[in-house]
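User: Design a sequence. Structure:
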């Protein structure tokens, strides 16, 4: 990269080289600020996916830096893009590092685990620097061969690096509750009557790079009804039926994807002041509702549209009331088993959209 901006050549202008370098670093740091501000909640709710995706981004940025000597006229463009990607990756690494280290600190030795992680990073960085210095010494008289060797070694080391990160994240078992992990726990409770351990949920959760897991029929979402789509009549009737004692309610939400017909979400709407127990109860009730709807999927797929007859409305309210009673009955035992399995039950970590709340006005 120094050769790309002309360091070492008498014809280069030091001031121009310095300006390019400052612009490169400045754009990278600005992008890092924007990235961390916009995705703050994702570092907790989608830690593994964000961590691995930014690792891929970091590897691609190294490849861009290798291209700067080949295209010195585009140094500022290539170096700036590479530095933006590196700064984003660094921001994610620092933001998620403590949570990853905490998952390995089984004896509350977080400081020791963090120190050993730094030792590993320093050792491998030194090995990489030593290898780079050795290659430069061996091929100092043949710069073309050295450049070709770098491009040959880069994909091999990148693959090894990403494979190591992927395998490492598979062994990170987070004890914090998110909507996705809590849904896995509650579905396991409904099907088998027990709460899975963090390691079991971690295996089922996976890294989910492309966000394809959990795409099931009648997906459950936490949040508020969208204002840009038509609200189903059953949802309107549900909102009219809530009282001041309710801290959440279950309703339906229509959604559509590209080249697909309109489908339905099961939506859990949380009220301002809702506690962790209300979130667990609401998601448990939603899982019970989904299980009931799936038993007669053809009927509900055909019946739940913008217009709801009296018979369908009565059946829907019967389903929601039955599921509410079952969730209320099971909640104490579910909460006890979640705590006994080693989960952190004080809070449920939600994304920015999932943190939206409704206000109840009693007129």
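Assistant: Done.
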């Amino acid at each position: 990269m120094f050769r790309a901006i002309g360091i070492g050549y008498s014809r280069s202008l030091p001031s121009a080289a310095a300006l390019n370098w400052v612009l490169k670093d400045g754009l990278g740091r600005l992008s890092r600020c924007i990235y961390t501000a916009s995705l703050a909640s994702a570092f907790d709710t989608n830690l593994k996916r964000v961590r691995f995706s930014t690792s891929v981004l970091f590897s691609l940025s190294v490849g861009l830096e290798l291209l700067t000597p080949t295209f010195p006229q585009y140094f500022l463009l290539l170096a700036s893009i590479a530095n933006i990607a590196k700064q984003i990756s660094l921001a994610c690494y620092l933001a998620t590092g403590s949570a990853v280290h905490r998952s390995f600190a089984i004896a509350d030795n977080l400081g020791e685990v963090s120190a050993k992680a730094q030792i590993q990073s320093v050792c491998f960085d030194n090995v990489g620097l030593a290898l780079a210095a050795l290659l430069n010494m061996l091929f100092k008289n043949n710069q073309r061969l050295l450049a070709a060797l770098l491009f040959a070694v880069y994909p091999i080391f990148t693959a090894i690096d990403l494979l190591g990160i992927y395998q490492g994240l598979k062994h990170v078992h987070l004890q914090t509750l998110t909507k996705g992990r809590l849904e896995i726990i509650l579905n396991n409770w409904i099907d088998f009557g027990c709460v899975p351990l963090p390691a079991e949920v971690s295996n089922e959760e996976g890294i989910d790079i492309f966000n394809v897991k959990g795409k099931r029929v009648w997906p459950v979402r936490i949040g508020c009804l969208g204002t840009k789509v038509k609200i189903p009549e059953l949802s309107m009737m549900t909102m009219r039926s809530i009282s001041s004692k309710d801290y959440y309610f279950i309703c339906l939400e229509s959604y559509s994807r590209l080249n697909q017909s309109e489908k339905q979400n099961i939506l859990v709407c949380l009220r301002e002041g809702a506690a962790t127990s209300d979130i667990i109860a609401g998601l448990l009730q939603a899982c019970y509702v989904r299980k009931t709807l799936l038993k007669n999927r053809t009927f509900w797929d055909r019946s739940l549209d913008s217009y709801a007859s009296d018979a369908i409305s009565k059946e829907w309210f019967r389903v929601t009331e039955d599921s509410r009673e079952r969730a209320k009955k099971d909640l104490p035992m579910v909460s006890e088993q979640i705590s006994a399995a080693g989960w952190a039950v004080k809070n449920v970590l939600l994304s920015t959209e999932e943190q939206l709340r409704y206000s109840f006005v009693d007129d």
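The longest strand covers residues 248-255. The chain is about 60% helix and 10% strand.
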